[in-house]
Amino acid sequence: MNEAPSQHHLVFETELGFIAIAWSQTGLTHLALPEGSYEAAEHRAARWSTGAAGKAEEAPAFVGEAVALIRRYATGEAIDFSALPLDLTGIDPFRRAIYAAALKLAQGEVTTYGELADRAGFPKMARETGAALGRNPLPLVVPCHRILAAGGKIGGFSAPGGTVTKERLLSHEGVQLGPPPPAQASFAF
To answer: pTM of this prediction?
Structure first.
């Protein structure tokens, strides 16, 4: 199925890097995770958009709100993106249900693909859930980075940078994967 065409896009800088978002008149349609340069983010955004790059002050109010929330998230503030309007035109009901379940995860909260499938009403569909999240057009807003493989393993991540990007986002939210650092056994006096 075709996803919602974005009429405009915007690239903006955050403390995490340059982020691109695109939107239709009814909601956000795409988001690119942080890139190292404006040009790289613009290149990714140009693939989704049917219109020219926009300016935040000329965009619908929800775009300005999204930019402000993402910038606050980048500074380390706990942000809930679930109130932002999303345009998921052309996305099948299964993916919509998976994205809706992911949107309910709080910042720093993680779950597994199987648990998320259960929450969305699709038990025993962990692999399909992973595939749906791999096609997530709005990473960060729909927090697919918070979904782990069974046993709390990192799992996959289809965004640029792969699992390194996923680990960075989780670390940014205070989630540490892997064993904790060893405790000091004794004091040497």
So the answer is: 0.85
